Amino acid sequence: MKFVLPLSVNLPRKKGDRVWILNLNSYRNTHFHVLNQAKVEWARTVIHSPVDGPDCEPPYRFTYTVFPASNRKFDLSNVLSVVEKFTDDALIECGVIPDDSYKIIPCIDYRFGGVDKQFPRVELEIRPYSPSEEVCKEADEIL
């Protein structure tokens, strides 16, 4: 199962929408009321994605791949940790996964997918988890 997610959400304001970019810097510096509003808007984004549920039973392996709009350097976990938290909570809320504990999602990967100026995004792939998978071997094949 694959979800295509944006890198920001639009928060309605009286004088026009405000773009809230998902990353730890924004998360850390944003008032909790605005954070809650961003989380609600994010859940709407996820719910409007095709949500049928994974094709397999837990445990799952989640792979988050970011495709930024520019070559500007950034820390993957700075962006994807907030995307992960908001998305996991939205997936629980809409009934796709029962929980986001380590028993349900024991493996989470963060990846850089390349620059996409036309369609910056985050892709989430949900697959069955297999403890015998060699993460390092898979990473070596990508590089």
Shape: globular
Number of strands: 6
Structural class of the helix and strand makeup? alpha+beta
Strand order of the largest sheet: 1-6-4-5
Radius of gyration, Cα only, in angstroms? 16 Å
Secondary structure: helix percent: 25-40%
How far is it from the N-terminal to the C-terminal residue, by CA?
24 Å
Looking at how many chains there are and whether they match, the oligomeric state comes to: single chain
CATH architectural designation: 2-Layer Sandwich
What do you see in this structure?
- The structure is a single chain.
- The protein is of the alpha+beta class.
- The chain has one domain (2-142): 2-Layer Sandwich (60s Ribosomal Protein L30, Chain: A).
- Helices cover 34% and strands 24% of the residues.
- Strands 1-6-4-5 form a 4-stranded mixed sheet, covered by helices on one side.
- Strand 4 (60-67), helix 3 and strand 5 form a beta-alpha-beta unit.
- Helix 2 packs across helix 3 (76-93).
- The two termini are 24 Å apart.
